[in-house]
Protein backbone atom coordinates (compact mmCIF):
# COMPACT_ATOMS: atom_id res chain seq x y z
CA UNK A 1 0.00 0.00 0.00
CA UNK A 2 1.17 3.58 -0.82
CA UNK A 3 1.58 6.06 1.96
CA UNK A 4 -0.02 9.30 0.77
CA UNK A 5 2.26 11.36 2.98
CA UNK A 6 5.24 10.02 1.03
CA UNK A 7 3.91 11.10 -2.41
CA UNK A 8 5.46 14.20 -3.92
CA UNK A 9 3.30 17.24 -3.47
CA UNK A 10 2.63 20.01 -5.89
CA UNK A 11 4.90 22.97 -5.74
CA UNK A 12 3.19 25.72 -3.79
CA UNK A 13 1.71 28.50 -5.86
CA UNK A 14 3.72 31.70 -5.60
CA UNK A 15 2.22 34.88 -6.86
CA UNK A 16 4.48 37.18 -8.79
CA UNK A 17 4.78 40.55 -7.23
CA UNK A 18 3.70 43.38 -9.44
CA UNK A 19 5.27 46.77 -9.13
CA UNK A 20 2.85 49.37 -7.88
CA UNK A 21 3.87 52.98 -8.59
CA UNK A 22 1.86 54.13 -5.59
CA UNK A 23 3.46 51.67 -3.17
CA UNK A 24 6.65 53.62 -2.56
CA UNK A 25 6.84 56.03 0.31
CA UNK A 26 7.53 58.90 -2.11
CA UNK A 27 4.23 58.48 -3.95
CA UNK A 28 1.32 60.70 -3.03
CA UNK A 29 -1.47 59.30 -0.95
CA UNK A 30 -4.51 59.23 -3.19
CA UNK A 31 -7.73 60.32 -1.58
CA UNK A 32 -10.64 59.36 -3.83
CA UNK A 33 -12.43 62.53 -2.74
CA UNK A 34 -9.57 64.77 -3.93
CA UNK A 35 -10.77 65.32 -7.49
CA UNK A 36 -7.95 67.71 -8.41
CA UNK A 37 -5.32 65.13 -7.47
CA UNK A 38 -7.18 62.31 -9.19
CA UNK A 39 -7.34 64.34 -12.41
CA UNK A 40 -3.56 64.06 -12.59
CA UNK A 41 -3.81 60.28 -12.76
CA UNK A 42 -7.07 59.55 -14.57
CA UNK A 43 -7.77 60.51 -18.15
CA UNK A 44 -11.11 61.84 -19.31
CA UNK A 45 -12.11 58.34 -20.38
CA UNK A 46 -11.21 56.86 -17.00
CA UNK A 47 -7.82 55.36 -17.83
CA UNK A 48 -5.28 55.60 -15.03
CA UNK A 49 -2.32 57.53 -16.40
CA UNK A 50 0.67 57.05 -14.12
CA UNK A 51 3.22 57.01 -16.94
CA UNK A 52 4.58 60.43 -15.97
CA UNK A 53 5.24 59.30 -12.42
CA UNK A 54 6.83 56.08 -13.68
CA UNK A 55 9.03 58.02 -16.12
CA UNK A 56 10.11 60.45 -13.42
CA UNK A 57 10.91 57.54 -11.12
CA UNK A 58 13.09 55.99 -13.86
CA UNK A 59 14.90 59.31 -14.34
CA UNK A 60 15.51 59.54 -10.58
CA UNK A 61 17.20 56.13 -10.75
CA UNK A 62 19.36 57.24 -13.70
CA UNK A 63 20.27 60.64 -12.25
CA UNK A 64 23.40 59.45 -10.39
CA UNK A 65 24.85 58.31 -13.72
CA UNK A 66 24.06 61.59 -15.52
CA UNK A 67 25.23 64.51 -13.39
CA UNK A 68 23.97 67.18 -15.85
CA UNK A 69 20.44 65.79 -15.85
CA UNK A 70 17.84 68.45 -15.13
CA UNK A 71 15.21 67.86 -12.43
CA UNK A 72 11.81 66.39 -13.30
CA UNK A 73 9.38 68.86 -14.80
CA UNK A 74 6.60 66.82 -16.42
CA UNK A 75 4.52 66.26 -13.29
CA UNK A 76 2.94 69.69 -13.43
CA UNK A 77 3.25 70.40 -17.17
CA UNK A 78 0.04 69.99 -19.16
CA UNK A 79 -0.01 67.36 -21.87
CA UNK A 80 -0.22 68.66 -25.45
CA UNK A 81 -3.80 69.78 -25.93
CA UNK A 82 -4.49 69.69 -22.21
CA UNK A 83 -4.79 73.42 -21.60
CA UNK A 84 -8.59 73.63 -21.63
CA UNK A 85 -9.70 76.50 -19.39
CA UNK A 86 -11.10 75.02 -16.20
CA UNK A 87 -10.57 71.53 -17.65
CA UNK A 88 -14.15 71.80 -18.92
CA UNK A 89 -14.40 69.51 -21.95
CA UNK A 90 -18.01 70.37 -22.76
CA UNK A 91 -17.31 74.12 -22.75
CA UNK A 92 -14.26 73.55 -24.96
CA UNK A 93 -16.26 71.40 -27.37
CA UNK A 94 -18.98 74.06 -27.61
CA UNK A 95 -16.31 76.68 -28.34
CA UNK A 96 -14.71 74.47 -31.00
CA UNK A 97 -18.13 73.93 -32.62
CA UNK A 98 -18.63 77.73 -32.75
CA UNK A 99 -15.18 78.19 -34.32
CA UNK A 100 -15.71 75.40 -36.87
CA UNK A 101 -19.47 75.12 -37.49
CA UNK A 102 -18.82 73.22 -40.74
CA UNK A 103 -17.53 70.17 -38.82
CA UNK A 104 -20.00 67.34 -38.28
CA UNK A 105 -20.67 67.02 -34.56
CA UNK A 106 -19.14 63.53 -34.35
CA UNK A 107 -15.92 64.75 -36.00
CA UNK A 108 -15.69 67.80 -33.73
CA UNK A 109 -16.16 65.58 -30.66
CA UNK A 110 -13.57 63.06 -31.88
CA UNK A 111 -11.01 65.77 -32.62
CA UNK A 112 -11.60 67.44 -29.25
CA UNK A 113 -11.26 64.12 -27.40
CA UNK A 114 -8.20 62.99 -29.32
CA UNK A 115 -6.28 66.25 -29.50
CA UNK A 116 -7.78 68.60 -26.94
CA UNK A 117 -6.83 72.19 -27.65
CA UNK A 118 -4.44 70.96 -30.36
CA UNK A 119 -7.55 70.33 -32.50
CA UNK A 120 -7.34 74.03 -33.35
CA UNK A 121 -3.93 73.42 -34.90
CA UNK A 122 -5.48 70.84 -37.22
CA UNK A 123 -8.35 73.18 -38.13
CA UNK A 124 -6.20 76.32 -38.46
CA UNK A 125 -7.61 78.60 -41.13
CA UNK A 126 -10.27 76.16 -42.34
CA UNK A 127 -13.64 77.66 -43.21
CA UNK A 128 -15.15 74.51 -44.73
CA UNK A 129 -14.59 70.76 -44.79
CA UNK A 130 -12.90 71.08 -48.18
CA UNK A 131 -10.29 73.37 -46.60
CA UNK A 132 -9.16 70.36 -44.55
CA UNK A 133 -8.08 68.54 -47.71
CA UNK A 134 -8.81 65.02 -48.86
CA UNK A 135 -11.45 63.25 -46.80
CA UNK A 136 -11.01 59.67 -45.65
CA UNK A 137 -13.52 57.52 -43.76
CA UNK A 138 -14.41 58.20 -40.12
CA UNK A 139 -14.02 61.98 -40.41
CA UNK A 140 -10.27 61.73 -41.00
CA UNK A 141 -8.96 64.49 -43.27
CA UNK A 142 -5.64 65.34 -44.89
CA UNK A 143 -5.17 68.16 -42.35
CA UNK A 144 -5.36 65.66 -39.48
CA UNK A 145 -3.05 63.23 -41.30
CA UNK A 146 -0.54 66.05 -41.88
CA UNK A 147 -0.70 66.93 -38.18
CA UNK A 148 -0.12 63.29 -37.19
CA UNK A 149 2.88 63.02 -39.51
CA UNK A 150 4.40 66.32 -38.40
CA UNK A 151 3.65 66.25 -34.66
CA UNK A 152 3.17 62.60 -33.73
CA UNK A 153 5.56 60.97 -36.18
CA UNK A 154 2.94 58.80 -37.84
CA UNK A 155 4.45 57.03 -40.84
CA UNK A 156 1.88 54.62 -42.27
CA UNK A 157 -1.83 54.20 -42.81
CA UNK A 158 -1.90 51.46 -40.17
CA UNK A 159 -0.08 53.73 -37.74
CA UNK A 160 -2.78 56.38 -38.18
CA UNK A 161 -5.80 54.07 -38.40
CA UNK A 162 -4.89 51.66 -35.60
CA UNK A 163 -2.19 53.04 -33.30
CA UNK A 164 -2.87 56.78 -33.23
CA UNK A 165 -6.63 56.31 -33.42
CA UNK A 166 -9.06 53.47 -33.82
CA UNK A 167 -10.45 54.87 -37.07
CA UNK A 168 -9.50 51.59 -38.73
CA UNK A 169 -12.74 50.25 -37.23
CA UNK A 170 -14.68 52.71 -39.41
CA UNK A 171 -12.44 52.80 -42.46
CA UNK A 172 -13.05 50.66 -45.52
CA UNK A 173 -10.22 49.12 -47.56
CA UNK A 174 -10.59 51.68 -50.35
CA UNK A 175 -10.19 54.59 -47.92
CA UNK A 176 -7.23 52.88 -46.22
CA UNK A 177 -5.59 52.44 -49.63
CA UNK A 178 -6.22 56.13 -50.46
CA UNK A 179 -4.66 57.10 -47.13
CA UNK A 180 -1.61 54.93 -47.83
CA UNK A 181 -1.28 56.53 -51.28
CA UNK A 182 -1.61 60.00 -49.75
CA UNK A 183 1.16 59.25 -47.25
CA UNK A 184 3.39 57.90 -50.04
CA UNK A 185 2.86 61.06 -52.12
CA UNK A 186 3.67 63.24 -49.08
CA UNK A 187 6.82 61.25 -48.31
CA UNK A 188 8.02 61.43 -51.91
CA UNK A 189 7.40 65.18 -52.03
CA UNK A 190 9.42 65.80 -48.87
Task: Write up this protein.
This protein is an all-alpha fold. It has three domains: 21-77, no CATH class; 81-131, Helicase, Ruva Protein, domain 3; 133-190, no CATH class. Helices cover 42% and strands 0% of the residues. It contains eight helices and no strands. Helix 3 (89-99) packs across helix 4 (105-115). The protein is globular and about 55 Å long.
Please state the average pLDDT score.
81
- Number of continuous helical runs: 8
Residue ranges: pLDDT <50 for 5 or more in a row? 16-20
Compute the number of structural domains. 3
- Structural category is mainly alpha
How would you spell out the order of helices and strands? HHHHHHHH
Shape: globular
Name the descriptors.
mainly alpha; 42% helix; 190 residues; 0% strand
Element layout with pairings:
Layout: H1 35-39, H2 51-62, H3 89-99, H4 105-115, H5 119-123, H6 142-152, H7 157-163, H8 173-189
Helix pairs in contact: 3-4
Provide a quick synopsis of the model.
The chain has 190 residues and is mainly alpha-helical.
Amino acid sequence: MVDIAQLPTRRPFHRRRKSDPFASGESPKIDYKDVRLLQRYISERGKITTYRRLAEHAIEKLAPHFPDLKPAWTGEAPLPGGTMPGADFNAYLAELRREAPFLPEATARRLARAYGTEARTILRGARSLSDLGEAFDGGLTAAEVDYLVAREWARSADDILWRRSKLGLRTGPESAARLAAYLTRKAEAA
